[in-house]
Amino acid sequence: MKMFRKGLKGVVAVETKVASVDGEKGRLTYRGYDVGELTKTLTFEEAAFLLWYGELPTDREVKKCIQKIKDNRALSPLQWEVLQALPRDMSLMDVIRTLISLEGDQTYSGPPTVEQAIKLTAVIPTIIAHRTRLLANKDVVHPELQLSHVENYLYMLTGKKPLIAHVQALETYMILTMEHGMNASTFAARVTASTESDIVSSIVTAIGTMKGPLHGGAPTGVIALLEELKVSNDRKKTIKHKILSGEKLMGFGHRVYKTVDPRAEALKEKLLSMQVEDSWLHFAIEVEKEVVTILAELKPDRKLYTNVEFYATAIMRALSMDPTLFTPTFTAARMVGWTAHILEQAEDNVIFRPQSTYVGSEK
Ligand code: ACO
């Protein structure tokens, strides 16, 4: 019997060893390791190695991986030429999709490899930073080989060596958002990979999917909420009014997590432990407490907590990142999860080819 589930809700489409998302227990693991724990001990490069290879790296292995990432940071001459020619009103996600598309030469043909995954992961922060500086009429800042992946990203954006606290905060965010099971963009990437198309084409599919507001494109709502609450004379009253009038408060609730989003918890814990000096962060923590208390009072059975977007926004604000960088930065992190899944798809591939039920009329 044919079964139909709109949006494939509840359908298991893939068996994976990359990560596990337990929405009931609020647990996210990468290759069996708790992600909150990983952020306490691993760098971005080490976590990426774990997702790509399935094992934690030795010192020698991680050094080699770091070097390969550094070697692949620069744009190709063609990418640089095209970047300068793209219209100013093109969105950053469209720019990323276009420039990643230009990666697709003969070196990417054939089955996907970790080398290709490294190349794509290495270049994306440079695309984002160069485009951002060109739009601001500033000289681009070339990648600095002494710096780590996350440190170099911030350096290329600002032209200044970033504070350690800022690097750690962003690194935590980027590790936490590297991977999240069968979300829409990862699924899209695996569908393209399942046709035995190349890795660049699969990633271009994923970027186009990530761009949509229902997936990667909604964090500005959290800023709008915090800005509104900042100037409210009676915050609790404003929050209650919003909830009672049916508004969904941005940064709260989650489709999968029916308990605390472990990424939000880990992000908050890290931020608190590092004592990032930012009044917005402390304000966000106050707002979280108030909103969660009021949601528990007004919607007692719904189990609504902060999701990852809430503290991601707090982090990006603390780093003075423009909101236009939020989804692109998420994309730079998720490149690791996408490529890990594309590699896994190729290991034991079956083309995705579901069916549809015709509901039109017969003529
Ligand atoms: N604020 C107030 N009430 C909420 C919220 C919220 N953020 N989220 C859910 N509720 C309430 C709903 O009003 C509803 O109450 P009711 O049954 O009394 O009418 C109940 O909780 C269930 O809501 P649904 O929308 O059905 O919950 P679902 O699990 O389908 O939706 C979603 C999850 C879409 C994330 C929702 O919580 C939401 O819109 N949150 C705000 C947007 C947001 O922060 N998105 C980012 C998610 S994280 C990520 O994508 C990486």
Present the secondary structure layout.
Elements: E1 19-22, E2 27-30, E3 33-34, H1 35-41, H2 44-53, H3 59-71, H4 77-85, H5 92-101, H6 114-135, H7 149-158, H8 164-176, H9 184-194, H10 199-210, H11 220-230, H12 235-244, H13 262-274, H14 279-298, H15 308-318, H16 326-347
Antiparallel strand pairs: 1-2, 2-3
Helix pairs in contact: 1-8, 1-13, 2-16, 3-6, 5-6, 5-10, 6-7, 6-16, 8-13, 8-15, 9-10, 9-16, 10-16, 12-14, 13-15, 14-15
The protein binds acetyl coenzyme *A.
CATH-defined fold name of the largest domain: Citrate Synthase, domain 1
Number of domains: 2
Alpha-beta classification: mainly alpha
The geometry reads as: globular
CATH architecture of the largest domain: Orthogonal Bundle
Q: What percent of residues are in strands?
A: under 5%
* Name given to the CATH homologous superfamily of the largest domain: Citrate Synthase, domain 1
In total, how many beta strands? Answer: 3
Small molecules bound in the structure, each named once: acetyl coenzyme *A
Largest sheet entry: 3 strands, antiparallel
The low-pLDDT segments are: none
On the 0 to 100 scale, the average pLDDT is 93
Keywords: Transferase
Family: Belongs to the citrate synthase family.
GO molecular function: citrate synthase activity
Organism: Cytobacillus kochii
